[in-house]
Amino acid sequence: MIVRKRPGALGLMLAWKGSVVPHVLPHILLAGLFACAVTWIARHHYLEGIVEYTLLPFTLLGIALSILLSVRNTATYDRWWEARKQWGQMVYEVRSLARVTGIYLEAEPRRELLQCVLAHAHLLRGQLRGETVRAELPPELPATLVDEALSRRNPAEFMLQQAGRVLAREHQAGRLDSVAAATLDKHLYALSGVQAASERIAHTPLPFAYTLLAHRTAYIYCYLLPFGLVGAAGWFTPVFTAIVAYTFFGLDRLSEQLEFPFGRAANDLPLDAICRIHDISVAEALGQPAPELLQPVEFQLQ
Amino acid sequence: MIVRKRPGALGLMLAWKGSVVPHVLPHILLAGLFACAVTWIARHHYLEGIVEYTLLPFTLLGIALSILLSVRNTATYDRWWEARKQWGQMVYEVRSLARVTGIYLEAEPRRELLQCVLAHAHLLRGQLRGETVRAELPPELPATLVDEALSRRNPAEFMLQQAGRVLAREHQAGRLDSVAAATLDKHLYALSGVQAASERIAHTPLPFAYTLLAHRTAYIYCYLLPFGLVGAAGWFTPVFTAIVAYTFFGLDRLSEQLEFPFGRAANDLPLDAICRIHDISVAEALGQPAPELLQPVEFQLQ
Amino acid sequence: MIVRKRPGALGLMLAWKGSVVPHVLPHILLAGLFACAVTWIARHHYLEGIVEYTLLPFTLLGIALSILLSVRNTATYDRWWEARKQWGQMVYEVRSLARVTGIYLEAEPRRELLQCVLAHAHLLRGQLRGETVRAELPPELPATLVDEALSRRNPAEFMLQQAGRVLAREHQAGRLDSVAAATLDKHLYALSGVQAASERIAHTPLPFAYTLLAHRTAYIYCYLLPFGLVGAAGWFTPVFTAIVAYTFFGLDRLSEQLEFPFGRAANDLPLDAICRIHDISVAEALGQPAPELLQPVEFQLQ
Amino acid sequence: MIVRKRPGALGLMLAWKGSVVPHVLPHILLAGLFACAVTWIARHHYLEGIVEYTLLPFTLLGIALSILLSVRNTATYDRWWEARKQWGQMVYEVRSLARVTGIYLEAEPRRELLQCVLAHAHLLRGQLRGETVRAELPPELPATLVDEALSRRNPAEFMLQQAGRVLAREHQAGRLDSVAAATLDKHLYALSGVQAASERIAHTPLPFAYTLLAHRTAYIYCYLLPFGLVGAAGWFTPVFTAIVAYTFFGLDRLSEQLEFPFGRAANDLPLDAICRIHDISVAEALGQPAPELLQPVEFQLQ
Amino acid sequence: MIVRKRPGALGLMLAWKGSVVPHVLPHILLAGLFACAVTWIARHHYLEGIVEYTLLPFTLLGIALSILLSVRNTATYDRWWEARKQWGQMVYEVRSLARVTGIYLEAEPRRELLQCVLAHAHLLRGQLRGETVRAELPPELPATLVDEALSRRNPAEFMLQQAGRVLAREHQAGRLDSVAAATLDKHLYALSGVQAASERIAHTPLPFAYTLLAHRTAYIYCYLLPFGLVGAAGWFTPVFTAIVAYTFFGLDRLSEQLEFPFGRAANDLPLDAICRIHDISVAEALGQPAPELLQPVEFQLQ
Fold first, then answer.
1. What is the ipTM of this complex?
2. Neighbours of E135 (CB within 10 A)
3. Which of A229, B242, C52, D50 is 20–30 Å from E21 (CA)?
4. C-alpha–C-alpha distance, residues C42 and C233, integer Å
């Protein structure tokens, strides 16, 4: 995630990091070159009698295009924001567990439970990003438990089950009544919900037909545009084509980046920083020294 | 559901599987041919004095059309995404039951309950898809129970009732207090909600008048278009008509595909794969060997 | 609700039942005739010097019109879909009550409670539709109870209170602890929520100023249109006017139909069929023979 | 709130009550007169060489205007509908309290609690409307309690606290266990939520910058319009300007009316009628004679 | 937050405080001056043969621009409104705690708990605004506790943990059963949710690529506009350019202001006034003299 004070107007025009420009520049240039060629041909009258230049059909095509881009854009932004909400919920579930375990559990099972929950967050982050997080798991977790978790289909899920086993043990030993067990489990349930939502967003792309239709319409539009523009805009045609291509390809690429918000790209969510917040919450609850908040590096928070 | 790494620009232009093109190609060609005919007639001056060509009325028609297509598109996408969310919720309800039953139930009733829940998921999938799933039900379920379920109006619902009967038996035997029974039943309640939502989406089409109005306006639009275009676009008329038809018919068909997301079409939801996740959760909870995750075949996850 | 397999392109163009065409046809014809008159007058030069024909003002009017129609359309569709969701929730509340009463209640109070709940659904349906449903209430309900219900301001509400009285009696007799009573009442609370939401939708129209503004703008638009079109479209003017009138009056009427979704019109919700699902759930829970699902008659499910 | 059967097309064109026309008529006339003046000047060639008439810039301005009006319109409608939902929730909270108090409380504290809750609803209505409601409070409430409530910063809130005190007294006297107290308080909590949401809507206007920007753009638009129209529309300019002004000023005023939905204007919510529903629910629960439902007077329900 | 009775039409045109005009005026003037220059050059025929003036390309660019501005505007407004909802929820959580603690807790721990909760609200306000609030914390709070809180990474969070410690102490001393502790903690959980949501909104900007794309498209649009306008609008070009720039830059700036709603700018949320409401609720619950509601100063409520 890019975190920076909003730069001035000039700074905004020149900002490169986090922009979609680097990704769509080749496509913009290609469309511009194509428009140059069309203009040159049109200026030499080779298109006469074939195309009578008019922009009006493009306003019609624009209807479908604006529906496609706008629904897709809204949908991907909603995914991004829902993902952020889910990880924001994780923050207060962990904090609440830190608080509620203090009411119902004794020191040792409390520590055990909170470490499982912390490990769950780190493992989930690893699963969503396809990374190994073993080094960042709480060091007090027994290595055999970590090994067993990593041998499962879904290590994060295993850690939640493990937290449930702590509750089961305390309940069966009579140190936790049914109400308290249910109250504590409610937070594990919520964490399970965060995990399922994250997996849903990470593994369910927008309907492929949608991406195809939006992408194709945008490309057809930009490559037909010079024929409509050249009659009215002359040598401004490549400029306009490039600008229109910039906005449409830019929107297309933006939607693509927001569709899967859990990676390490510039506009993805700062899962590392959120997990650090969990580290702090758990450390302070257990009376251990708390690490620092993660800071952005070159405007980017990981 | 189509799952593939986003192909390059060229790959996106050529992708066939999951695209709506195969379904609307005949309609596009027909509209294009009609436009050819109109252009030929117009070029031979047979329309003079009858139609003075202008595109402007189409921007007016476009207002109504864009409202219709955009509301319909948003509504069907929301249905698709809500269906996915419901089945995502099922994932964490099953996992949570696996965890919470470990707190409150003994081994045997726990196994029984989890198998009922698993059977519920498979039976619901079968009901939504109109398929027989008997072979995929947990093999430990007594055949008489399965027979009884299948003889009911709603076999999936019967399995949830059966899970409730396990709780009732344990509660009446005094092995489960009221709080624990209520806590466990909360998850059955949520699964019942997933089922009702799935049935709602599967059995309630968009208001028929809506589909009709959107469909008709799109067709009228595309078949009137050549008369408006031919004056300005000449022999480009069939090309433009075909492209506009592609986007409008494409949107129409896309909405139709997303309206009922539980089938086996390319853009439908991967219910088989989700049920496999349940199989894994339950197997790992019961200490049984867990099956593999389902993999996409030719980019399609069933 | 219209339930039919999507007909082919031709079938969709000709479908009559469930369409808004029958309701707006007179208005379309009137607008078309008016446009004929304007065209005839314009062709005889009587408008010259008064109107210089241009369509451009209509794109401006179109801005306000599209906002009005689109917000109104979205709002009425949301009402329709929320109503469907509420009655879908009723389905799983009834099923859950069938299940949870099996855990906490003995046979007789269970039967009593479920029949009150069933009567609640039927009575609510009757109240929303302004119909008498006495014949369809569960036959085991004492006639005096039914009489008392029907003498109240809100018979459906009385039945829920009656269900609450069953719980109160069992609780005071010590056969139901506080947790169990609260757990059962949670479902009565949810049913009360469904009722309040249904009454809200049935008795709160969209703000009247909204309906007026949308309706008037659409009419002004369609009756001014011929003056703008006649210069460019000649004798095509009545055709275009009729088509534009079809889409705008169609959207207007569609919104009106979806605004109150509880009636018996073609696009209204199938409350009878949903109540039949409740009948089945309760019958199967009580071990009684279950009736058949209701089937659509001439594509319409009541 | 205006409640009337939808009048015919003519009735809709002529309806006055509940329409925004009376509020915006002076502004429409002013814009129309201004347009007359511009047309007269233009006809006498005084604008030549200064303005070359064109409508196209207005389609550009229209982009910003449509975003502003549409977001503002959606936002104010959502406020109106949310307010209605909150007061609809109050209906079923009161009914549920009537039911649940029957399970857990004895006759006297039950009566006391329900009267506090009823007084809460009336007092909140009074606070939102800036009216005195003392005469409509339940007559059995001790005058000293009412006096004390009215001396507080927030009398409605005091009544909920008072209801809580009834629960506290019963709980401390051992007549109400913890579960029952929590169950009953859940409804007071929900009523507290309804109150906070109502206060939020009543006291938080849309961001003022938003209102300003939308208002100003609409006015600038309507007063520049004659310059663009006069070249193409001649003496139709004032007509078109007035119609466009009607739709834009109408939307502006409509948003303003829906922004604060708790007053007594024609499109505001019928809080009196909803409070009467509470009166009925409580009276029937306590076995007292229930008043009649409030009826609309001249189509308006207060 | 600006709170004022809606001024008349003239007052709305002239209002300065809370308007975005002061912030975008330099940019509007710059765009207007640039348009003057372009017009002067065009009038002297220096552009001939290079640009053939036409506005049509701008309607195309307008598609992308309207999607960008509208999605961004909707998203930032939603953030602003969600933030208001969260702080509105805090109001009724505090009031509910005032009520529920009266049921379950004795006087001393009740006072202690409510003061922690009050301190949490003030500290959170301070953290969100980057201000010191020590002077406004409840004076009865022990100084050592406040010191400890301020030494933590997250002082507000510490205060909630402290409230949890009060519950833990009472629970372990046997003065609070499991149900009551869980009931009270539910409100701390909700406050924790308010805090996490506030932090989410305060620390997560919209995706930077979004802001960039919207900003750049708006600027490119406004600086290209004179070339398109000058052919049709002559010396009206600078006027139109300035007006279009006003609406687009205004929307851009508006979105920026709503994106982070917790500051002290004119359109930000009145956190001070909301915290004062908490002060009143807690004071009245504890029988202490309640302070006055905060009043707007020069139309602005802090």
1. 0.95
2. 7
3. D50
4. 12
